[in-house]
Amino acid sequence: MAKDGLDLTVVFYNPNIVPLEEYNKRCNENREVCKLYHIPFIELEYDNERWCSLTKGMENEPERGSRCEICFYMRLKRTMEFAKKNGFDAVTSVLGTSRFKNLDQVNKMANLASQEVGVPYVEIESRKNGMQDLRNNLIKELNLYSQDYCGCKPR
Ligand code: SF4
User: Which of 56, 113, 128, 132 is 20 to 30 A from residue 96's alpha carbon, by CA?
Assistant: First the structure.
């Protein structure tokens, strides 16, 4: 996107990630990659308590279940609120790039949050066009940390 000339900012809002050490590791890695590509990076608050209260009772849901929908909604809505307050035109999300995610769930919750906040959501289908290979190459090239679970608990 940056190479296409889009003026973009990366917002890191992942209060779903535990433990805190893991959160910090992923956040720092993201910050470093953004620095390398001269992309502004913003870390929002780590409000894991609010995430836990919103997903209470769904602890045993499988990945791709109802807990994930609430998780997407919370994170995307907060990001859109930030975008609106700071004059951004639109929001997109790398949530749509993971093969472990249900893209319909991501888009459904993103569009709901978008309607509520009034910031357009740009859907991306990055599982096509060799994106997975590009991702794997980048991990190797930059020797990046690659997590083996989503965020709230190890698979
Ligand atoms: S598995 Fe991932 S997307 Fe689903 S609730 Fe946990 S952290 Fe959120």
Answer: 56
